[in-house]
Design goal:
Blueprint: H1 3-102, H2 104-121, E1 125-131, H3 137-150, E2 152-158, E3 165-170, E4 173-178, H4 179-182, H5 186-203
Parallel strand pairs: 1-2
Antiparallel strand pairs: 1-3, 3-4
Helix pairs in contact: 1-5
């Protein structure tokens, strides 16, 4: 082999080694670049997911706050409506009780209920029955006869201060079924009245 060929062979060998090393370096650089790019994409996706989660949580917080505010406003509106209904009901209730007392079937049911409560709670003996003056005589007599036959001797007294109803007293105990007595327990009557008014409003 001549010197030129030997030199050329050496140069070719160096060039091939150089190409091989350059290729290896380039491949490694490309691999690193791909890895960095993949990591950058992964980091970007993670940041995006985190941003989405944070935004969802922010939105969920806003929605929850809005729902809580709406629920509070609804409760306030319901309370105001209930208050308005009760105020209107309390204005009408006294006259409604007078009207019920003047209606024979309602008056009988009223008297029967007061008498039943008196039978359950008052001792036997003489009962003082104070009633509205417009209680018809025939009904009073029937009431007195029934009471005398089953439980007590009634002493019936008309009281012009009573607009509707009656009250029965015995030995210091009183069952007050007058209009005024029925309106005394405002909390219980108020809840009953509110239920009745709401039921009528729903049915209308």
């Amino acid at each position: 082999m001549t010197m030129d060929r030997a030199t050329q062979a050496l140069l070719d060998l160096v060039a091939a080694d150089c190409d091989q090393k350059c290729t290896a370096i380039l491949d490694e650089a490309n691999a690193r670049a791909d890895a960095l790019l993949a990591q950058a994409h992964a980091d970007a996706r993670e940041r995006m997911r985190a941003a989405f989660v944070e935004e969802r949580e922010r939105m969920a917080g806003r929605v929850a706050a809005a729902q809580a505010m709406l629920a509070t406003r609804r409760r306030l509106a319901q309370q105001q409506r209930a208050g308005a209904l009760l105020a209107a009901g309390w204005q009408r209730l006294p006259q409604a009780l007078v009207a019920a007392w003047r209606e024979p079937a309602a008056r009988k049911a009223w008297v029967d209920r007061v008498a039943a409560e008196a039978r359950a709670l008052l001792p036997r003996g003489t009962w003082r029955v104070v009633h509205a003056p417009d209680w018809p005589a025939a009904e009073r007599e029937a009431f007195a006869a029934e009471l005398s036959a089953t439980h007590a001797v009634p002493d019936l007294v008309a009281d012009p201060r009573i607009r509707a109803g009656l009250k029965i007293a015995s030995e210091g105990n009183v069952i007050d079924g007058t209009q005024e007595g029925l309106l005394t327990d405002r909390s219980e009557i108020g809840s009953l009245l509110l239920r009745e008014l709401e039921a009528r409003e729903t049915a209308a």
